Acetone carboxylase subunit alpha
Amino acid sequence: MTTTIGTPADNSVDSGPKEGIVYGGETLKAHRDRIMEATRSTGHYAGLKDKDLRASSPIQYNKIFSRLRAGLVDARETSKKIAASPIVEQEGELCFTLYNACGDSILTSTGIIIHVGTMGAAIKYMIENNWEDNPGVEDGDIFCNNDCLTGNVHPCDVHTLVPIFWEGKLIGWVGGVTHVIDTGSVGPGSMSTGQVQRFGDGYSITCRKIGSNDTLWRDWLHESQRMVRTTRYWMLDERTRIAGCHMIRDLVYDVIESEGLDAYWKFAYESVEHGREGLQNRIKAMTIPGTYRQTAFVDVPFSHEDVRLPSDFAKVDTIMHAPSEITIRSDATWKIDFEGASRWCWHTFNANPVSFTSGIWVMMTQTLIPSEMINDGAAYGTEFRLPKGTWTNPNDRRVAFAYSWHFMVSAWSALWRGLSRAYTGRGYLEEVNSGNANTSNWLQGGGFNQYDEIHAVNSFECAANGVGASATRDGISHAAAMWNPEGDMGDMEIWELAEPLVYLGRQIKAGSGGAGKYRGGCGFESLRLVYNAKDWTMFFMGNSNITSDWGLMGGYPAASGYRFAAHDTNLKELIESGAEIPIGGDTDPENPKYDALIPDAQIKRDKQAVTTEEAFKDYDLYLNYMRGGPGYGDPLERDPQAVIDDMNGGYVLPRLVETVYGVKATENDGVWELDESGTEKLREDIRKDRLAKAKPVSEWMKEERQRIIDKKAAIPVQLMYAQSFKLGQRFRKEFRDFWDIPEDWDLLEEDLPVPSFGRDRAMDISELPDVHMVKFVEE
């Protein structure tokens, strides 16, 4: 057999003293190194400028594709019935992916498809660090990984990885991932916030062999079940992943038996190049070459007394900064650059670069490439620059990752806006998306549940947030999450079985979607009553004072977060007496109704939407508020009747209709009706008022420049920019040039009244003995 890229090497080629396990005789590392060198030198994955199988046998190529894709989806839908966790069974927080021998994704199922790349990163880590020799990779082995330093998003995403052998040689891998309900971290739940370093993130597993001969090892079973609070869920999630992986492995065997090993091997490499070309073709068809800049922010309000941390140096209010630049070239290649991002900090919101290189698929399959050919081709077709030391690419192995999504969903909302401007330029208005919702609140906690078991919860209702508006229609309400387009809020009855929390209401969150010519989709809210729980704690996790979901083309941002909790409510006595109690939604938080019904309760109603564990007891209340999406276009251009329909449907607060939308309405027997003449006059008056208040841009810039020079900004804002200037010298220069800043002006972190811990010293994971990291991005 001749040696060509994408097909196995001739055994006569000298590949070292030991024959490798890969089909054709190479070692895993030699095989991957060869494929990567061919990719770099030719610009085509594995050097496959010509795709032999797809060109010569297109029907067979598509037959293999269809069988594998359908089998992956079937394995997901079948295996998730094994799981007991509502996160998996109700929300569909799982995914299966098929890989070629060097760890590049061929195809994936539906679900949390960000893990196309994270599981591949784990496989590549094993290859790079010679797992082939020690601990060995053999037919029937089972590996487990959730280590964020190898490329995982956060520790609660647990991978099961199974090598696929044919006649004694490795021909690929299959991976399965589920979002587990607890990781044994400092606080209960899958994404706790009380820790400030990764050593508190919970059970950490680095590509560990946990079984052989398709059987889990007993020492692993004994260890893993005692490392988490939710033992039953953990064990059944693992069986879910293994069952799906083995179903897919059997499918590969069937395909090889019917189509031949040579055809399968070629498909395993040609499909990745097919995915890369597909992305490039869509970029060429749907966008305009140029540079698109945007930015994003989200707050970390850690100084509050209800954020209890083990280290005083972390008790600092900070702001995440994510300026991004999308460069689309005339040859339809592109680059995404986060120059100017702020530094990683002592919280759980930092991200690994693979979260971006893999996560790009979550966005792209919803807009640019709505294709079933979901594989690593998009990653090879995209250049990333994530500066080292920023929150996008930390340079310290102590960094925590438990809730990386808090930052990532905020940063990606900006990328939606950049792409949407490119779509607008080509007239693809229906593909415009004003941005994704900040996927929160996360109701998490634990203790002893209604079954007297140690338990933890993460209510995945926020898998159904509002969606951003497009240029042609309103965003969909309470529909999906950015990280899982198939997300669902789940059945209340199932959540009540899993949690000692009774529903007192679940309704649309009026006004949560951003206003606009087209309104952002609204989120929803659930009022939960603690019942039959013991030693129970819960906490809040979401955006607080800053909305991270800006509108587009004049559209308004989505509403930001807040919290409502009530302790010592006396609800038991009120229920027994038949008195009115809080039920339904907290419709208008500025004019609350709950509070007056429980006047003696200890109520927490404020913008502190990030907290750590707080004790709750029976009959205490917790409001779980899921965010909406941003709007598109000027609200004054919205069809007035659509505004009236929103009022009657509970999507907008009546008190905002006149000031935001310029709509006059009258109420008759609880039904709102349009006042057409009043609306026309009101909108005319609002437009005149806008002009009267407006000032020339040059005047505004002069005022803003002076504020910058005088450093008239809150300490968290100054700290954010000081970090961005230090880590992004190009960003610093462009900022200074744009605002014409004097040469002697500077903004340094050491001049601000904040702790210096972690500012000047770091130790990267690559500095550990015998650790060889795989580099996925420009740094």
Observations:
- The CA atoms of residues 502 and 529 lie 5 Å apart.
- Residues 439-633 form one domain.
- The chain has 21 helices and 24 strands.
